[in-house]
C-alpha cells in the first residue's frame, strides 16, 4: 500500500510541483491550502506523513505541528516543516514543537523526496521494534499475535496475550488488576476485573516452566520478572 502524505501549502505552484513528483514516486498525496483545514484533514485521515508550510492562513504550520504532536492519535505522524524562512530560530521552534525534519525554500525536489523516504523508514523501523518483546527466553510478536518460549509456541487467547504484553512491556513494574484490565480488554468489553486472576492462572499453566516470570505482588496485582 502506498504511503499517504498530507501536504499543507498555500502556494499552489509549489504544491502542484510537490504533488506531481511525489505521485510520480508512488505516493498518495492529499493537499490543503489552509492551516485550519489542514489540521482537520490530518486529524481525520491520519496520514503516514505531513508536510507543513510555516506561513499559512488560519493556523501556521508550527501551530498545526504542536497540536498534532500533543494528541495521542496523531503524535506519531512524522512531520516535515517546509518554509521560505531559513532562520535558525524558526528551525529550532519547529523541532521544539515536535517536527521531525525541516526543509527551507527554495529546495530541490529529489533531496525532499529522500528526506520523506528517510522519515518513513524511521517510522517503520520504530513500529517494527515496538511490535516485538524478548526477555528471559520469552518472545512476543504483537503484529502476528505470537508468543513463544525458546522457539516453542505458547497458545494464548487474545485477552491473555494482551495481559502478558502489558506486563512484559515494563518488567519489574507492578500492575494493579484494574490496569491489567485496561490493557487486556481490547475488543472484549465484557472482561471483568475479577477475571484477571483466572486469566493469570491460565497463562501460568500455559507457560509451564516459565510460569514463575509472572509474579504476584500482594495488595497490588502482578508483574513480570525483571532480573
Describe the structure.
The protein is α/β, with parallel strands linked by helices. The chain has two domains: 127 residues, Rossmann fold, CATH 3.40.50; 93 residues, Arc Repressor Mutant, subunit A, CATH 1.10.10.10. It contains eight helices and twelve strands. The chain has a five-stranded parallel β-sheet, sandwiched between helices. The chain is elongated.
CATH topology of the largest domain: Rossmann fold
In the CATH hierarchy, what is the class of the largest domain? Answer: Alpha Beta
- Strand content range: 15-25%
The CATH architecture assignment of the largest domain turns out to be 3-Layer(aba) Sandwich
Features:
227 residues; alpha/beta; Rossmann fold; Arc Repressor Mutant, subunit A; five-stranded parallel sheet; four-stranded antiparallel sheet; 12 strands; elongated
